[in-house]
Design a protein that fits this description.
About 15% of the residues lie in helices and about 30% in strands. With about 200 residues, it is α+β, with helices and mostly antiparallel strands. The radius of gyration is 19 Å and the shape is elongated. The two termini are about 35 Å apart.
Length: about 200
């Protein structure tokens, strides 16, 4: 049987915490009764510095072994995505597990805070987030004024937070945050998102 590879894209609204996807998926698999283990990746610019493994069928431990990963390697897939590698028909079952975790656990985590209130922005509230572009901006600080601003390499997109830290001085960017997902900025008019850090 030939080995295969299948991607499952992470919802754009969860990209800022994608670094924790594989660890949480592994815990979920263990809760379902799967035995899992990890193998570290070599040095490099990895979203996750390990691969996750499990066996889909204990009666066929070698043939049913599946490798899971999570990456933002754009030349393969421009979206941040999880993937499974394995032999058919075990690959199909592994992809189904990824999809179920994505729908039932991962995509829902940022929607409710510890107090049980809806967050300021969630995938449920903003169904058009898949049409937003995520910008890779750098933080800069003026040495004389200590003012912070965010900009891309060619300064085609940039903004400066106002004194409250919740809006930009131009009024086009707004900051959102919840206890599970951290902080991100959104420019609804330009349909742009900027995540402060990957978890």
């Amino acid at each position: 049987m030939a080995s295969g590879h299948r991607d499952v894209d992470l919802p754009r609204s969860t990209w800022h915490r994608a670094g924790g996807f594989l660890a949480e998926f592994g815990e979920w698999l263990q809760e379902l009764g799967y035995s899992t283990w990890t193998i570290d990746k070599g040095p490099g610019n990895h979203l996750t510095n390990f691969w996750l493994y499990t066996r889909m069928d204990s009666s066929a431990p070698t043939k049913s072994q599946v490798q899971f990963g999570c990456t933002k390697f754009a030349s393969v897939n421009p979206r941040i995505h999880a993937y499974a590698r394995g032999k058919a028909p075990h690959l199909s079952a592994a992809v189904k597990l990824l999809e179920n975790f994505m729908d039932q656990v991962w995509a829902l985590e940022g929607q409710v805070t510890d107090a049980g209130e809806t967050t300021m922005v969630s995938a449920a509230q903003h169904s058009s987030w898949d049409q937003f572009e995520v910008l890779d901006l750098m933080q800069y600080r003026c040495p004389s004024t200590e003012r912070v601003w965010f900009s891309n390499d060619d300064a085609s997109f940039w903004f400066m937070p106002d004194s409250s830290g919740s809006c930009s001085t131009c009024g086009r960017w707004k900051k959102y945050q919840d206890s599970l997902s951290g902080a991100w900025w959104s420019n609804e008019d330009a349909r742009k998102l900027f995540f402060l850090a990957v978890a």
